[in-house]
Amino acid sequence: MLELFVATLGSVFSIVNPLGAVPVYLAMTPEYTIRERNRTARMTAIYFVLILSVFFLAGTYILGFFGISIGAMRIAGGLVIMSSGYTLLTGSIAKSGATSRKLTAEGLAKDDISFTPMAMPLLSGPGSISLLITWFDDYPLWWQRAIILGVLFVMGVLVYYILRFAPVLYKVLGEAGLRALSRIMGFIVMSIGVQFILGGISKIF
Fold it and tell me: Over the range 113-127, which residues count as b (16 or more CB within 10 Å of their CB) and which as e?
């Protein structure tokens, strides 16, 4: 049980990459007070957990409605995850859609950025959603699924504290430190993507 918890938490943390969201979050909240930042961090974490939990529990039914097989989802999700990992690995985070100037400008124009663009698509994007949908099929036992839901709750807590202390983290790690961590996670994320593609191919054939 502990092994499953640690493995899934590491995978979700790498793909979500909340540390990579720190510069974007700060760029969208320059005029926020400490109370407003804390509230935004809290609501972002709540929305993040709810979004991923819903897709985890209902994702296979959504796939069935559209006639998409788990194997096809694995391959498509693997390609998305690999693309995200490559973006992190090459350090081109600023060029990715999730951290584009357009997204930052949209955040600045909104009164509440917690649901969108922070919780979705910045944190809970296609990669993490496809990962959780396939896990629902991989782990059919109730206690396994309960552990994964527990992982999502822990991730929500981590997201909350990372965003809450985003100014401190940015001062301590700096842009270079955050980029270095993102590149390390990028390699892990690409490996997860490759594993998903291989799993999808074996599932189909």
Answer: bbbebbbbbbbbbbb
